[in-house]
Amino acid sequence: MTAAKTMEEARRLAREQQDCSALLGLVPYAAYMGMRMELNEPGAPILRLPFKPSLIGNSALPAIHGGVVASFMESAALMHLLLMLDEQRVPKSIDFSIDYLRSAHAEDSWASCAVERLGRRVAQVQIRCWQSDPAKPVALARAHFLLAADAPA
Amino acid sequence: MSNENFYNTLLRGYAISVPHVGELGIELTRLDGEAAEARLPCRPEFLGDVENQLIHTGVVTTLIDSICGIALLAHIGKPTRIATLDLRVDYLRPSRPGKDLWCRAECYRLTEQIAFLRASVWQNDPAAPVASCLAAFMRTGRPGESSQRSGLQ
Hints:
The structure holds two protein chains of two kinds.
Chain A: H1 3-17, H2 21-25, H3 28-33, E1 36-38, E2 46-49, E3 56-58, E4 63-64, H4 66-84, E5 92-100, E6 109-118, E7 122-130, E8 139-146
Antiparallel strand pairs in A: 1-2, 2-6, 3-4, 5-8, 6-7, 7-8
Chain B: H1 3-17, H2 19-24, E1 27-31, E2 36-40, E3 47-49, E4 54-55, H3 57-76, E5 82-91, E6 101-110, E7 114-122, E8 131-139, H4 143-146
Antiparallel strand pairs in B: 1-2, 2-6, 3-4, 5-8, 6-7, 7-8
């Protein structure tokens, strides 16, 4: 199966059967962190990062590593694009910017994304990450991704 | 504690006090008041794009956040509580498995409460970085602590 066909099939499984494992499998690091994708409501997915001790960056607090929060949010944007668009390959990160608002406690984290601008070649994505209280985000981030414009069929 | 002792304490305790750093396998190769440098051997689970064999940019961001943090502690020169306020990463080139990632971070401006850092990541050649970053940190200790000068400024 070609890479594009694999991606198409993974997307079909996620969209039609709410089975996101193949889609997450396209991004090994997301699977390595233990990310989950939840499609409880129609439309945009919610990404979940179940807590595990190896994600800790500060044993004293304890708090999840800031880099993990960033990776999770960046991966959330990537998974969002893979599900919502019909890309033939994994979009490439151009840049990423994150503001940390609160420390991330030793508990599960969630992220949701919004594509604020979708051009032919570049997508701008806003990402929000929270823990127990959605009204108190842990971090806000934005990222630019390069899309596969005019990808060969 | 002399500066040398403090650097050695940081070097020895880093992977233990920051579990996720140990989990990824980040090794500090240099640490003093001027800069921190580290090496991260790449692993298959760090991939973000299997088809094109690219390292996930989140791995790069986690490396940067970690090394900025310890560079700042060494720059301050004594145990201090710090938190990342924000960071912005530009992904200048793709990073590929099979080669280590190297990171260098330095604090270029330290005030009583805020620190500004820059970092870059490369694989083959420091002059051809795969990512560059600007970050701001704040000292989160009690008010009395933050007013103490470090003597390294």
